[in-house]
Amino acid sequence: PLSLLSQILAPMTVTLWAFIGVEGAVVLSGRAKNKQDVGKATLIGFLLALIIYMLMSILPFGVMPQAELAQVSNPSTAGVLAHVVGQWGDWLMSAGLIISVLAGWLAWTMLCAEIPMVAGQKGAFPRAFARTNSKQAANVSLWVSSFVMQAAMLLVYFSNNAWTTMYNISALMVVPAYITTTLYLTSICRNGKYDQYAKKGRRLALSSGVLGSLFCLFILYASQIEYVALIPILLTCGLPVFIWSRKEKNDGQPIFTKKELIYLIMLLLCDIIVVALFIGGYLKV
Fold it and tell me: Transmembrane stretches, by residue range (predicted)?
C-alpha cells in the first residue's frame, strides 16, 4: 500500500488539471457588461467545481466497495449510477458525458482563441492575432490556436499513455504562468504597490500570493520529472512569436533586454540538458 505522502502526491497533477480554466471568466472579462460580475463568476465557478468534484469522489464509496470501484470502466460515474438505478443510469451518464465534452470543447476553443487575441491587442503578441471577424470574435487567433490544439492531440496520440500524457503536459504548462502571477502578487503586496490596484484586501491578496506560490512549487515536486523537464522545451517553442512581436514594434531597441537575454540563455541551457537526458535514455515519456 502507498504511504500517506504518496497518496497525497499522486493526484496533485490531476487536481491541477481539473481546475485549469477556473479563471475563464477573467479571460473573457473584456466582454462583460458589468465588471463586478467577473469576480463573482470566478468564485462561484470555483466553488461549484470543487463541490461537484468532492461529491463525485466521495459518494461512490457509499454504494460500492473500493475493490469494485477500481474495476469500473470509464466513464466511472456511468458504472456507479448503473449499479444504483440500473442500465438507464449508464445511458444517462454517457449522454451527459457527450454533452460535457462538447461544451468543454467549445469553452476551451473560446479561451484559447481569446487569450492570443487580447495579447495581440495589448502588443504582447503580433498584431495579426488581434484581428477579429464581423462578429468581433477572434479570427487569426482562432485558426492558429485550433491548429496547435489539433497538432498537440495528434502528437499525443502516438504516446503510450495518450490521455495521461495530455493532461500531465497541459497541467504543468500552466504552472509557469501561475507561479509568476502569484509571485508578482506577493511582490506588489510587500512593496506597497498593491494600493495602486485596490484599496482593500491587501492581507488576503498577500496570503493568496504566498499560498499560490507554495502550491505551484508543491505541484512541481509532486509531478513526474519527465513531464516537468518538458516545460522549458515547450516554452522555447514560443520564442518565434515573441521575436515577431518585438520586431513589429520597430522602436530601435534590441529584441531582448539584458535581463531577457540572461533568461533566454538559461532557458536554452535547460533545453540542452533536457534533450541530452532524453537522448541518453535517462528520461522517457
Answer: 6-29, 41-63, 91-119, 140-159, 165-184, 204-221, 227-245, 261-283
- Please report which helix (H) or strand (E) contains residue 249, including its range: helix 239-249
Distance CA 41, CA 38 (A): 5
Q: HSE of 39 in the Cβ direction (CA atoms, 13 Å)? A: 2
Give a three-class secondary structure readout of 160-228. CCHHHHHHHHHHHHCHHHHHHHHHHHHHHHHCCHHHHCCCCCHHHHHHHHHHHHHHHHHHHHHCCHHHH
Average pLDDT, the chain: 86
φ/ψ of residue 188, rounded to 5:
-70, -25
Q: From CA 249, how far away is CA 242, in angstroms rounded?
A: 11
Residue that has been written with the C-alpha cell 541551457 in this structure = 269
Coil, helix or strand at residue 153? helix
List, for residues 195-251, the tens digit of each pLDDT value: 888 778 888 899 999 999 999 999 999 888 999 999 999 999 999 999 999 888 877
Provide the 8-state DSSP code for 255. S
pLDDT for 1: 59
Q: What is the rounded CA–CA span in Å between residue 271 and residue 169?
A: 16
Gap between the Cα atoms of 210 and 204, Å rounded: 10
**3-class state of residue 41 by DSSP:** helix
Identify whether the C-beta of residue 155 lies closer than 8 Å to the C-beta of residue 118.
Answer: no
Cα-to-chain-centroid distance, residue 270: 22
Q: Are residues 194 and 188 in contact, defined by beta-carbon separation less than 8 angstroms?
A: yes
Whether 184 contacts 208, CB under 8 Å: no
Q: Give the CA count within 13 Å in the CB-facing half-sphere of 267.
A: 16
Region 54-69: what's the mean pLDDT?
86
